[in-house]
Amino acid sequence: MDPGPTDLGVVDPFPPPPSSPQQQQQRKPPSRYESQKRRDWNTFLQYLRSHRPPLSLARCSGAHVIEFLKYLDQFGKTKVHATGCTYFGHPNPPAPCVCPLKQAWGSLDALVGRLRAAYEENDGVPESNPFGARAVGIYLREVKESQGRARGVPYHKKKKKKKKRKLLQDTAAATSGGEASLFPAVGASIADDATGARNISAVAAALSSSEAGEGSRATPAGSSSSS
Length: 227
Description:
227 residues; single chain
């Protein structure tokens, strides 16, 4: 029996055109961040449609974003002690209490960041981005401070002391070496310093998983973040 064309290794005279880089990129599965961002965006749009009265994205403001963040608190898993609670400010309470569970501020902050990016990726104007509104930033800062006091785990901002110290040292060295060497030393230090942000249940589950990681960073080893 004569071998067929396949056995002879005959090359197809009309091969399919090679895929373009854009087509290859489209076939590549989205990253975990992109998938989460898409779910968050679809959830927020669903929240706007379910709002009473329904809201359009064009009419959405920072106040509506804050309202959405407060709505998500019902799905939270972080214990936030009330001011009248015996364990208020206690980082590792010895017994349970009736204080509510809320979303951790770190989870809300990350959520706002993803939604802010998604808004602009969906033809939103950066200047009118409700997720970047000043009121939203103030709300997140208040949540951060209040949860830190309630849980006894204050969140400290990282200070850039090393770079400031280096700048002072360079300035002092340049001054002792003469006026001519002052500006290059300070300029180099400043340059170094300049090089140095689909559904409700799905979002709630993602936020809860991120809270677990945040709780392990905020509380000492061996302690529980929810009590």
